[in-house]
Amino acid sequence: MKYVLMFIETEEFAKEFEAKGPAEREEAYRRVYQWFDDHRDKITDRGNKLQGPETATTVRLDGGVAMTTDGPFIEGKEVVSGFTEIDVADLDEALRMVRTWPACPVVEIRPVAEM
Amino acid sequence: MSTEDELARVVRDHAGRLAGSLVSLLGDFSAAEDLVQDAVEIALRRWPVEGIPDRPDAWLFTVAKRRGLDVLRRQQNYRAKLSELQRQDDHPAPDDRLRLIFTCCHPALAREAQVALTLRVVCGLTTGQIAAALLASESAVAQRITRAKRKITDAGIPYRIPRDDELSERLTEVLTVIYLLFNEGYLSSTAERAHSRDLVDDAEWLTALLHGLLPNEPEVAGLLALIRLHRARTAARFTPSGELVLLEDQDRTLWDHTAISEATALLTRTAYRHHAPGAYQLQAAIAACHSEAPTWAETDWRQILVLYDMLLTLQPSPVTCLHRSVALSFVDGPEVALTELDLLALDTYPLFHATRAQFLRELGRDAEARVADKRAAELTANPAQLDLLRERLAR
Fold this sequence. Notes:
CATH superfamily of chain A: Dimeric alpha+beta barrel
Structural class of chain B: mainly alpha
Helix content of chain A: 25-40%
Largest sheet of chain B: none
Strand order of the largest sheet of chain A: 2-5-1-6
GO molecular function (chain B): DNA binding; sigma factor activity
Number of strands of chain B: 0
Distance between the termini of chain B: 29 Å
Shape of chain A: flat
Structural class of chain A: alpha+beta
Radius of gyration of chain B: 23 Å
Keywords (chain B): Sigma factor, Transcription, Transcription regulation
Order of helices and strands of chain B: HHHHHHHHHHHHHHHHHHH
Oligomer: heterodimer
Family (chain B): Belongs to the sigma-70 factor family. ECF subfamily.
Protein name (chain A): YCII-related domain-containing protein
Protein name (chain B): RNA polymerase sigma-70 factor (ECF subfamily)
Distance between the termini of chain A: 13 Å
Mean pLDDT of chain B: 88
Number of helices of chain A: 3
Low-confidence stretches of chain A: none
């Protein structure tokens, strides 16, 4: 089954990351790369890391006219910061994978809709 | 035993088994569950009139199969499954209920959904019975179950016994669900509700089933002993007019002493084989201390205190500390107990104030005791509720 993992950052995590020195950041990135490498047979699309929510623009189309606003669709302390697509047997396998994720503190697992 | 009880029991013994084998057969949790639920509904209508068949399992299977064939015929893509189901005779299938339990209690489902689903799929309760037992509306329960089933299918929740390295964590989840059922049933049982579904009975049955399927899991045995020790006191828990009798006032000759010694023996056997006891074993051991005491005054409070200390290292919680303080008051006196109690952040918890009041009274500080009692009363809806909480404290 295919799932998309949505990586979610908290304000606290972002601040902690900001405070890190270059060597520490290097190490954090290295662990993320290592994770992707460890699970490469299950990753069907590495997806992307996203820029911060301050760069987001939201368009609402349900009001008759397209409404463009600055910011993410939900203002909150937790924001999606990246995504990856995986293909595994079932939710338990996805859960096992996510438990070893070395970076941001929240991950949402969503099954991909079969079209 | 009334016919209704017998009916419920027979359905429970077979519905989960049937669900287990149909899920394996069809590979579709939701569809299999629908068939079982239909068969159960039909059985509940017909058995009271026609009598319970000699082979209820075969009867249920035949009905479910007939329904299933009807449904599947209308869905082309189920052709392979259809022939699978047609080939299947009504011999009892292997017991797949362990997989079923783990699926119903999967951590990706909300707790409420786990509870409703377990009652329906494993115990064979109808939606109406679940709603009555949980004091929820039928439509809310139905919606909870529909959502949960959809999530199982859509999110790819597997129908499988967890891997060895994941078993203990997942088993904890299952035991939490059963413990919740037990608590719900135990605390809501009153004389007036004697006719509604006895969730305590379902909780015991589930734990016994689990214990049969996983005999070497010490916490399953612990929970089973805990439930049985509490049930052994049933006859003494209410006055003939239906008022709750607190543990300290119960007529201990009414307790089921055979059940108590069996549960205690189970606990001892388990403790002997596994060294570090888990939380359910410790709670059962505390219940056993109460059950073995000839009177409230002769309770082995020192032993109970030790058990609470062990429990607190596993599960630190202010409510457990509150329970411990009662034992402490018997061992070291109310002053020491009050000092400990006042460290707890439980200001909105009525039992905290009721316990405080008791310690204060023992210390002769009556005015303060009255204030605490009043605060406890303000925080609870009714005095019966407070009695329940007091009883819980004595567990």
